[in-house]
Amino acid sequence: MIRKTWTLEEKDKKYLWHPFTQMREWVSELPVIIERGTGSFLIDTNNKCYIDGTSSIWVNIHGHRKKAIDKALAAQLKKIAHSTLLGLSNIPAILLAEKLIVLVHRSGLTSLSKVFYSDNGSTAVEVGLKMAFHYWQLKGGRHRKKTKFLTLMNAYHGDTIGSVSLGGIDLFHRIYKPLLFESFKAPSPDCYRCPLNKTYPDCQLTCTGKVEEIFKRHHKEIAAMIIEPLVQAAAGMIIAPSGYLKKIRALCTQYHVLLIADEVATGFGRTGCMFACEHEEVIPDIMAIAKGITGGYLPLAATLVTEDIYAAFLGEYGEFKTFFHGHSYTGNPLGCAAAIANIEIFEKEGVLDNLQPKIALFEQLLVPLKDHPHVGDIRQKGLIAGIELVKDKNKKTPYRLEEKAGIRTCLEARKMGLLLRPIGNVIILMPPLSISKADLKKLVYIVARAINIITL
Ligand SMILES: *Cc1c(COP(=O)(O)O)cnc(C)c1O
To answer: What pLDDT score does 173 carry?
Structure first.
């Protein structure tokens, strides 16, 4: 009997369902199958080498096959791959918790004192929202009415139902509406397409006015406000104007609303500081971190909270104040070992100091692109940038999604050895922090060429 040997490509198309992917399109196209990586590069099964322009979707920090992380994982594997945190503890989970608290304190987030692990950004947010809700229930009395959340339009907090409820990206979230809980929504701090038609700084942050209005009327019902500090990443890198986050913090404090910072995308140096909250000296009550926590090696996440929130859950066993939440892989020793190594690299290699000249170069490289007739806006913070393509620059007319301006740009870039993934008409650039200046130049050069090609 002759059996056909399936190629990897055929097996992929036969068995796999890819995330955020129209599979009919996928199966009609040539897939890139990654075999290995090194530094800022990914290498596919045809031996073609690409710059990892998205840090493997926003997770990689120090490059692929980083020796110190490889070694830490190998050493941990010789001890144990996994044991549970339910009723037991493990060494890497303890040491990482200590490291995270020291790290956030050094970043000025001095009131965060406890670490609750999970395994991805969505669950880190779910944990935060459940804790915020539960906290007010435990406080009792009139506080028990604090059951709702305030979120921002265009927000993205993950794909589980609680996180989707807090989200504001219509394309992804609309269909699930019947499953979601209702939240209060405030306008996005989107200066390019200001929902209030104002210009910064003349606006004096009018968009925070809506938050204040909602708080004034409803703070007795609001448990927490959740925000992606400084950068609404999945919205297409919408960057809040200076002072916005600080104002939000002040309003939350004034109206007794907890502030949840979703640092899943912005954490671990991406914006130039270890955490985005640091830029405005803002301390959240709850902070969700994931993506970069293991340097992009393994799925691990954490929700950090203040002592006050932690303490509200303390009581006699029979009072059942326990936070009944946990995941099979909570505090996974391999993930924690990778995360410890990741943080040590920041310290040993002075990563954030070395990053500042790269950020300056990045900014400089992007300047000429601003004049392109189909580049409407370039939004950059740290080593993150979003380039918004528009059909008509003066009118800010977007391309219709069906025109696939973003997708076509990324396909052109791919041919030239750069892997990117757009968000609608926004080209997202988010290379590993470890990218060399030469490769950063190459990255921006390829993007510019790709945009030229598709807008001809
Ligand atoms: C990616 C992301 C999430 C979700 O994280 P996952 O690990 O993909 O579940 C949540 N919040 C923000 C801001 C993100 O960028």
So the answer is: 78
